């Protein structure tokens, strides 16, 4: 593969990944849905109204678990192995 | 006036606009339902939460978030309703205590992990405790039957030999069918730190100085501490009954003294012959078999099996 071809191939892969991620629907979290319901029916200035303790606990637990899994994923992404472009040569490093 | 009305409606409008963006909607949900996580965006607090660097309320919310989501959700709702920090701290403290066998006194105690209440006795405590009703004070008389004398801040006597004597007595007592003798056995286990339950065997000071790794605020550790505490309370309850038996029944008291002397003599004889203080399991079993106890509750005293386990 020629150097330009390799770069173009990686670009197309990256675009495909971005497209793919853009089409992933947002996670439907109970907490977000609950807030939408609250905002639809009541004034935003009031504090968490007429929500049962069970519902509140369930929404909170799900949100905490989601936050934890996101943090774990972000941590994993930090340690991804870099991909070496084998055919691309840098003639000189700019200062 | 119109401007004021618009200003009043602004938060609602802003909230609705935020709902149109998934990212902003998520942020708003976090702000309402999990505000504690906003202080810790990379999740480091899960690994190493610094209790000394945080105020009591933050520590309380951290513990609730990690272990008691229902309490955390309730506390956040009250926070949004504008509860004072003091009332909120009390709410969290009471909520956490509902999950513990040994309660915490305040949120300040959270830094030490789930509370460990030690019942153990040591020579210093024996000399210090001056409440005649206290089990430690009352135990002095029983130590006396083993040949110990309690001085100002030390106990004079052969502790390791007495431990061995108590072990053999325990072996003999647990083979008795009368439950009173099981209580007496629990009393000896506590007195000679031999129950196998750290809360029973260690004094609070010994626990602090042991260098043992303390339990953390996790569901597993809380369950472990609760189980250990329940077991310790059962042993201590039995030890209290055993002490009452010793104080009220002269025949049992005499039997304990006589039996401890029999075992003690045997050990001394053994030491002279073999220059060693330990006994084999078989020797312990045979020795325990020789000991006799008064009949109680119409149940005849029994001899334990020969094998010392």
Describe this structure in words.
- The complex is a heterodimer of chains A (95) and B (309).
- Chain A has helices at 3-22, 30-41, 53-78.
- Chain A is mainly alpha-helical and 95 residues long.
- Chain A has a domain at 3-42 and 51-73.
- The mean pLDDT of chain A is 80.
- Chain B folds into two domains: 34-112, no CATH class; 123-290, no CATH class.
- A two-stranded antiparallel sheet of chain B has the order 1-2.
- In chain B, strand 1 and strand 2 (155-156) form a beta hairpin.
- The radius of gyration of chain B is 29 Å and the shape is elongated.
- The chains are: A mainly alpha (95), B mainly alpha (309).
Q: Beta-strand level of the residues of chain B, as a percent range?
A: under 5%
Compute the separation of the termini of chain B in Å. Answer: 88 Å
N-to-C span of chain A = 29 Å
Number of strands of chain B: 2
What is the gyration radius of chain B calculated from CA atoms? 29 Å
Largest sheet of chain A: none
Which runs of chain A of at least 5 residues are low in confidence (pLDDT < 50)? none
Sketch the topology of chain B as an H/E string, one letter per element: HHHHHHHEEHHHHHHH
Helix/strand order of chain A, N-terminal first: HHH
The rough form of chain A would be described as elongated
Q: Helix coverage percent of residues of chain B?
A: 55-70%
Largest two-chain interface: A-B, 28 and 30 residues
* Oligomer state of the chains in this structure: heterodimer
């Amino acid at each position: 593969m020629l150097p330009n071809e390799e770069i173009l191939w990686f670009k197309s892969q990256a675009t495909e990944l971005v497209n793919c991620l853009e089409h992933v629907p947002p996670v439907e979290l109970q907490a977000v849905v609950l807030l939408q319901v609250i905002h639809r029916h009541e004034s935003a200035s009031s504090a968490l109204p007429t929500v049962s303790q069970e519902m509140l606990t369930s929404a909170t637990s799900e949100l905490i678990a989601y936050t934890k899994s996101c943090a774990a994923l972000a941590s994993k992404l930090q340690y991804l192995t870099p991909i070496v472009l084998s055919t691309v040569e840098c003639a000189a490093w700019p200062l | 006036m119109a401007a004021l009305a618009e200003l009043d409606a602004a938060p609602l409008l802003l909230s609705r606009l935020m709902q149109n963006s998934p990212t902003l909607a998520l942020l708003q949900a976090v702000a309402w339902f999990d505000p504690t996580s906003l202080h810790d965006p990379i999740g480091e607090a899960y690994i190493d939460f610094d209790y000394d660097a945080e105020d009591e309320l933050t520590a309380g919310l951290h513990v609730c978030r990690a272990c008691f989501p229902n309490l955390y959700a309730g506390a956040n709702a009250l926070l949004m309703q504008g509860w004072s920090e003091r009332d909120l701290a009390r709410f969290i403290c009471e909520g956490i205590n509902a999950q513990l066998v040994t309660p915490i006194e305040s949120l300040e105690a959270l830094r030490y992990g789930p509370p460990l209440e030690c019942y153990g006795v040591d020579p210093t405590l024996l000399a210090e405790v001056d409440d005649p009703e206290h089990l430690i004070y009352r135990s002095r008389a029983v130590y006396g039957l083993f040949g110990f004398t309690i001085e100002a801040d030390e106990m004079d006597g052969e502790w390791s030999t007495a431990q061995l004597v108590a072990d053999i007595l325990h072996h003999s007592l647990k083979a008795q069918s009368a439950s009173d003798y099981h209580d007496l056995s629990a009393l000896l286990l506590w007195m000679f730190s031999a129950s196998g339950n750290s809360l029973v065997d260690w004094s609070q000071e010994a626990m602090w100085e042991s260098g043992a790794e303390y339990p953390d605020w996790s569901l597993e550790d809380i369950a472990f501490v609760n189980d250990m505490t329940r077991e310790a309370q059962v042993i201590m309850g039995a030890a209290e009954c055993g002490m009452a038996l010793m104080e009220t029944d002269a025949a049992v008291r005499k039997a304990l003294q006589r039996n401890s002397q029999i075992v003690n003599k045997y050990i001394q004889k053994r030491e002279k012959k073999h220059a060693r203080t330990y006994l084999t399991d078989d020797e312990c079993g045979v020795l325990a078999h020789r000991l006799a106890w008064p009949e109680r509750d119409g149940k005849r005293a029994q001899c334990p099996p020969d094998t010392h386990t």
